[in-house]
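Q: Sequence in, structure out?
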Amino acid sequence: MEVGTTTHRLALLGTGDYISDFVGPLGLPTDIDKFGTVVCVAGGFAVATIMPIARALKERGNKVISIMGARNRELIFWEEELRRVSDELIVTTDDGSYGRKGMVTEPLKELLESSTRIDRVIAIGPSVMMKFSARTTEPFGVKTIVSLNPIMVDGTGMCGCCRVSVGGETKFACVDGPDFDGHQVDWDLLFARQRIYLEQEETSFEDWKRQHGF
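A: Exactly. Output:
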């Protein structure tokens, strides 16, 4: 999805083009174990992240129920890939143009209220979606892992841009994360830090468009 300067620049690359540097993976690997029944919740672009996690969980003997959501049908991708590694797949769209109309938190709550024992939830996607997934599971006492996406600069924890507060402690997503207990995250602080450079991001994009005739 082309959003700002960097993603528009990447989208202009063609076959045989390259970028000078790529750093990763950063942080700690996702905890994969035999938990029982795991619900994997993916919002939008995060299907690309959830799919290998769901596959690894399935290979470890878990029952995997996946929920994937997007704003509309056009933004749905990797549905069949995720279906192949899940025991059950629920698809939602905000506008009802495909699958079930509504947010991913609605089927998540229904699963938690059902007779099915849910042992763990992994929710990855936009921060607001992860926040409300964690809020949905909290009354049920089901451990919920989220993958935080604060602004990162150097990827070593030295710059401090990706700092988040988890359980009252300062953590750095690029070295301590990106996975954290969603019930312990200070979501208000995360949202505030994600908005801190909006003006600079918009200026950068406008300058780039002028330079390239867009």
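The mean pLDDT is 94.
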